[in-house]
Specification:
By secondary structure, this protein is of the alpha+beta class. The chain has four helices and 27 strands.
C-alpha cells in the first residue's frame, strides 16, 4: 500500500523554483523592461522573483477586475495565486476505486479546492502560465487504485482566463492507459500495450507515453485530464502509477523512469492561459470614442477583438504593442520602442548595411559607396566592377588617343616648319622686318 503522499501532486516550493528556472522564455523580454514600469504608479510589481505586470496586481487600485494576485510570503520563495477563487480554482478529488476508470472520482470522494498558482505573466502577449492539472492513478494492489483527479476551472462563464487550446496538449504516461478529457468518454490518446522495450526517452508516440490536442472547448470552463486504467494491473509492483496531464507543448519530456515508481509525481508542469478584457467589451470601431475603462492605455498599442472562454461569451478584446514596440500595452507609456539593431537575428540588416534604430522601426542604409536596401540584403557597389572596368578601358583608350594626337601634332608641326624653311620662309620673314 503506497503512502498517500506518493500520489500527492500539489506544487511544492522546490518544484516551483525548478520550473521558474526553466520558464525563462516569457521572462526573456522582461530583462529590457527592468527600468521601465510594468504596473500602475506606486504599485508593487513583484512577488518574490515573479514580475506582476498590470492588469495583474497585488493591491486594490493596482489590478483590473478579475486580475488580482495573492502573494504568499509565508514560503520562500513567495508564491503567487489568482485571487478570484470563485472563478478560478483547482479541484482535487481523491478516491479509492477498484473500477477500471477514475469515474468514481466524480462521485465526490474527498474533494478539495485550491487557488490557481501562477508561474509567470506576460502583458504583451495577454498570456499567463499556471501550474496545470495532473490526474494520477496508482495501484495499491493488482485490482485496486488510488486516484487523484485534478481539474482546472477558469472563469466558468466570463473569463478573463482560459486554458489555451493551441499552446497546450494533454499527455498520458503509463502502461496500457487511455486518456480522455473533461469527463467525456472520447479517447484522446493511448499509451500502448505495455511492451517495456518499446518505450523511448523523449518519444510520446504511444509507447508508455502519448500526447493529443486539447478539445476545442472546455466543458463549463473546466479542464480535466482523465485516466482509463486496466481492470487488472499486472505490473502494479514495478509501475504502480499512470498519469494524464494538461501541459504546455514541449514542456514535458518523456523519460522512461517516469513509468516506474513515483518520480513524475515530484513535478508540476505549466499550462498556458490566455486572458482578455471581458465584460461585454470589444474594440471601439473606427472613429468611435473608446469607453472610459478602455484597457489599451499605452501609446503605440492597438486593440484586437478576442474570444476567451465559452463561445457564447464572445465580446472581449486584448491589447498589443504596435509592431516594433514591446512592453505593457495595458499601462500608459507601457509600449516602448525596440532597438531592432540589438536583435539582428529578428530584424535583418545586411552586413553591407549600417543598422540605425528609430522610433517605430529601423533603417539599414547601405555603407558609403553602395546603394540599395540593406534590409533586403541588396547592397551593391555604386560602381560595380564591370562599370569600373568599362570606365577604365574608356579612360585608357582616351589617354592613348590624346597622346597619339599630340605626337601627330608635333610631327605635323615639324613637317610644316621644314616646308616653310625649304620655301624660304625665314628670308621672307627678314624681308618683312625691313
Ligand atoms: C529569487 O528570489 C530568491 C529569494 O526569494 C533569491 O535568493 C534568488 O536569488 C532569486 N533568484 C533570481 C533568479 O532572481
Ligand atoms: C477521505 O477523507 C477521510 C477523512 O479525512 C479519510 O479517512 C479517507 O481515507 C479519505 N479518502 C480518500 C479516498 O482519500
Ligand atoms: C486489493 O485491495 C482491496 C482493498 O484494500 C481488497 O478488497 C482486495 O481484495 C485486494 N485485491 C487483491 C487481489 O489483493
Ligand atoms: C532515459 O533516460 C534516463 C535518464 O534520464 C535513463 O535512466 C534511462 O535509462 C533512459 N531510458 C532509455 C530507454 O534509454
Ligand atoms: C453589450 O453592449 C452593447 C453595446 O455596448 C449593448 O447594446 C448590449 O445591450 C450589451 N449587452 C449586455 C448583455 O450587457
Ligand atoms: C471589434 O468588434 C466590434 C463589435 O463587434 C466592432 O464594432 C469593431 O469594429 C471590432 N474592432 C476591430 C478592431 O476589429
Amino acid at each position: 500500500m503506497p503512502t498517500p503522499s506518493k500520489c500527492r501532486l500539489l506544487p511544492r516550493p522546490v518544484q516551483l523554483l525548478l520550473i521558474l528556472a526553466g520558464a525563462a522564455a516569457m521572462a526573456g523580454a522582461e530583462e529590457l523592461a527592468e527600468q521601465l514600469p510594468i504596473t500602475r504608479p506606486g504599485c508593487p510589481d513583484k512577488c518574490g522573483n515573479l514580475s506582476i505586470p498590470f492588469p495583474f496586481g497585488l493591491m486594490p487600485g493596482c489590478f483590473r477586475e478579475g486580475f488580482q494576485v495573492i502573494c504568499d510570503h509565508s514560503v520562500d520563495p513567495p508564491r503567487a495565486f489568482l485571487a478570484d477563487t470563485d472563478n478560478n480554482r483547482m479541484t482535487v478529488t481523491d478516491s479509492d476505486a477498484s473500477a477500471a476508470s477514475d469515474a468514481a472520482a466524480y462521485l465526490g470522494f474527498n474533494t478539495s479546492y485550491f487557488p490557481v498558482e501562477l508561474v509567470d505573466m506576460s502583458a504583451d502577449m495577454s498570456q499567463a502560465r499556471a501550474y496545470g492539472p495532473i490526474t494520477s492513478g496508482c495501484s495499491t494492489n493488482s485490482t485496486q487504485y488510488r486516484f487523484q483527479t485534478q481539474a482546472m476551472t477558469l472563469g466558468v462563464t466570463q473569463g478573463p482566463f482560459a486554458v489555451s487550446q493551441t499552446l497546450n496538449v494533454v499527455v498520458g504516461v503509463g502502461w496500457r492507459v487511455d486518456v480522455a478529457m473533461d469527463g467525456s468518454s472520447t479517447l484522446a490518446c493511448s499509451t500502448g500495450t505495455g511492451r517495456e522495450l518499446a518505450a523511448r526517452n523523449g518519444s510520446c508516440a504511444g509507447q508508455g507515453c502519448c500526447e493529443a490536442a486539447l478539445p476545442p472547448e472546455p466543458v463549463y470552463g473546466s479542464v480535466q485530464p482523465g485516466l482509463v486504467v486496466p481492470n487488472e494491473n499486472a505490473l502494479w509492483r514495478s509501475s504502480p502509477c499512470s498519469y494524464a496531464m494538461v501541459v504546455e507543448k514541449s514542456r514535458y519530456v518523456f523519460s522512461t523512469p517516469d513509468l516506474y515508481g513515483d518520480t513524475l509525481l515530484m513535478e508540476s508542469f505549466p499550462v498556458v492561459l490566455d486572458f482578455a478584457i471581458v465584460g461585454n467589451a470589444s474594440c471601439p470601431a473606427k472613429g468611435q470614442r473608446p469607453p472610459p475603462d478602455y484597457a489599451c492605455a499605452s501609446s503605440n498599442s492597438y486593440c484586437v477583438n478576442a474570444t476567451v472562454g465559452l463561445s457564447g461569451y464572445a465580446l472581449s478584446y486584448v491589447c498589443k504593442c504596435s509592431e516594433y514596440y514591446e512592453g505593457n500595452p495595458y499601462i500608459a507609456n507601457g509600449c516602448r520602442d525596440i532597438d531592432e539593431c540589438k536583435f539582428p537575428d529578428l530584424y535583418y540588416c545586411s552586413s553591407k548595411g549600417i543598422c540605425k534604430n528609430r522610433p517605430g522601426g529601423y533603417d539599414c542604409p547601405c555603407k558609403p559607396g553602395m546603394r540599395g536596401d540593406g534590409k533586403l540584403g541588396q547592397c551593391v557597389e555604386k560602381f560595380p566592377i564591370v562599370a569600373k572596368a568599362i570606365v577604365g578601358i574608356i579612360g585608357g583608350i582616351s589617354i592613348i588617343v590624346v597622346i597619339s594626337f599630340l605626337v601627330l601634332l608635333r610631327k605635323e608641326r615639324r613637317k610644316t616648319r621644314e616646308l616653310y624653311e625649304k620655301n624660304g620662309g625665314p628670308t621672307l620673314e627678314r624681308a618683312k622686318k625691313y
